Amino acid sequence: MRNLLFVISGPSGVGKGTIVDALMECDKTLAKSVSCTTRAPRRGEKEGDSYYFITEREFRSRIEENDFLEYDEHFGNFYGTPRSFVERQLKERSVILEIDVVGGLNCKRLMPDKSVLIMIVPPTPEALVARLDGRGSETEEAKKSRLQRVRYELGQCDLYDYVVVNDTLEEALRKVREIIATEQNK
After folding, report:
1. Distance from first CA to last CA of the chain, Å, rounded?
2. Is the pLDDT of residue 177 over 70?
3. pTM of the model
4. pLDDT tens string 32-68
5. Residue 115: DSSP 8-state
6. CB 6 within 8 A of CB 180
7. Which residue in 39, 38, 21 sits closest to 30, CA to CA?
8. Residues near 55 by Cβ (< 8 Å), separated by ≥ 6?
9. pLDDT (tens digit, 9 = 90+) per residue, 134-175?
């Protein structure tokens, strides 16, 4: 069985985090990579589980040290994947990484033989808007910015290895688990 980096991407509110959490519950052989961010925690997010919440100064220092597999700035905050964690884990098991499209494409560029890109998409644009509204964690301005980014992200689907529609969690999770098993056993 091959150890791979499974990159899960998709627009905000599409359910990436819910799918990744469910994967981690049902498959204890996978490692979850936790990204660093300079944004403030949202309600319910935990340090070291959701993200590592660090200062912009620390983030920039780690960029200079080449300590990120990928990083990006959007919505006024930095997000990045600690390189050392991913490389260390891949020696022993597959890694799940939940990141945006730019980061996913960077992973594929840097680790083309190890990265499998999976795009999670909403069943309809209206379903995505309803999910964002249901969060209740963002201002109208922030929500508007995220919706503007959706068009760009969904336009990158052709660059991903797989596209999974998250209509129901059970079906989306089943498809992602199938993809992981297929790729690991190639």
Report:
1. 8
2. yes
3. 0.83
4. 998 999 999 988 998 988 889 999 999 999 999 999 9
5. E
6. yes
7. 21
8. 38
9. 656 667 776 676 677 777 888 888 999 999 999 999 999 999
Q: Give me the helix-helix angle, 169-184 and 16-26, nearest 10°.
A: 60
Read off the pLDDT of residues 90-116 as tens digits, 9 standing for 90 and up. Answer: 999 999 999 889 889 999 998 999 999
Q: Which amino acid is at 113?
A: D
> What is the C-alpha separation between 48 and 60, in angstroms, rounded?
19
Q: How far is CA 135 from the centre of its chain?
A: 18
Tokens of 179: 């993809």
Q: Which of 90, 117, 107, 106 is nearest to 2 (CA)?
A: 90
Task: Output the CATH code of domain 5-184.
Answer: 3.40.50.300
Token pair 């945006």 in the structure block, residue: 100
Element (H, E) at 6: strand 5-9
DSSP state of 168: S
Distance CA 186, CA 171 (A): 23
CB within 8 A of 131, min separation 6: which ones?
Answer: 13, 14, 15, 122
Cα-flanking dihedrals φ and ψ of residue 63, to 5°? -60, -45
Which segments of 2-139 does DSSP mark as H helices, in order?
A: 16-26, 56-64, 83-90, 101-110, 125-135
How long, in residues, is the chain?
186
